[in-house]
Amino acid sequence: MTLPQKKARVIKVPIVLDSEIELKYIQAKHTVDVRAEEKLTTAGDRIRVARAAATPDTEFAAAEAVVAGDRAELDGLQKVVAEKKAALDAVTTYFTFRALGRKTWADLVKRNPPTEEDHAQHAAAGHEGPAPFNEIELAKELFHLAAVSPLISREEAVEIVDGELYNVTEVATLWAGARYVQVQGSAA
What we know:
The protein starts with 9 loop residues before the first strand and ends in a 5-residue tail after the last helix. α5 (135-146) crosses α6. The protein is 65% helix and 9% strand. A three-stranded antiparallel sheet has the order 1-2-3. The protein has two domains: 18-90; 99-183, no CATH class. The chain is built from seven helices and three strands.
C-alpha cells in the first residue's frame, strides 16, 4: 500500500513591523466607530430639527440631507481607514511555520529540558506536574527549523527571542504559532 501524499501542516503568524502605522490604523478605526455611534444616537434628534426648520414640502428632503451628510462623513472616514489598513498590511510580515514531524518535535523537546525556572513558571500558571521543556531555548530552535517564510537563521531566531526588537507579545505570538503547528491535528 502506498500512503497518500501529505503536505506538511503550516500556519501563518502576522507580526506588525511598524507600530506607529498600526497605531494610526487603530486610531482611524476608533474614529469611525465613535463618529458612527454619535451619528446613530443623535440621528433622530438631528432629523427632527431639520424637518422642523423645513417647509412642509421640503421636510423629507431635509431629513434625507441629514442622512446623506452622515453617510458622506462616514464614507470619508472609511476611506481613511482603508488607506491606513493598506499601510498596515504593507508593514505586516507573515511568518509561516511548518510542522516538523512527530520524531523531530520529540527530539527538540528532549534537547531542551526544563529548568527550575520553567518548572516554577509552569506551576505558577496553574499547570500540574513538571514543565515539559525549556520554552525559551526550544523557541529559538523551533523558529529556525520550522520557519518556511521568511527563513530564519539560528542567529536571527536568537535575536527574535533574546533581542530588543520583538516585544514579549510578539515573541509569544510567534511561539504559539510555531508550537501550535507541531502539536495540533486536523479540525475535520
